[in-house]
Specification:
globular; three-stranded antiparallel β-sheet; 96 residues; 7 strands; Phosphatidylethanolamine-binding Protein
């Protein structure tokens, strides 16, 4: 089994997320390159959790699921629950 590796040109591994990608900046999603996707994968999900959030440890900033299986996720995914340009992916947090 291959190791799943996710990289982004938006920031350095272990570094701070630049303001551009936060609510204090332009609030755009970063790009991602994914290696080691299983050949039988049906879709991709990404979560962005903040382990060092000062008030809410492991705070979830972003979640998107049902992304088409692809090695590159573009920067600037449009806001909103349904993401038609990415095969009908869904993003946001649902409270049950």
């Amino acid at each position: 089994m291959e190791i799943l590796k996710i990289k982004s040109g938006a920031f350095e591994e272990g570094g701070w997320i630049p303001a551009r990608y936060t609510g204090r900046g332009e609030d755009v999603s970063p790009d991602f390159t994914i290696e080691g996707i299983a050949p039988n994968a049906k879709s991709i999900a990404i979560t962005l959790d903040d382990a060092s959030h000062p008030f809410f440890p492991n705070y979830n900033h972003w979640v998107i699921w049902n992304l088409p299986v692809q090695a590159t996720i573009p920067e600037g995914i449009p806001h909103g629950e349904a993401v038609d340009c990415l095969g009908g992916a869904t993003q946001g947090v649902r409270l049950w």
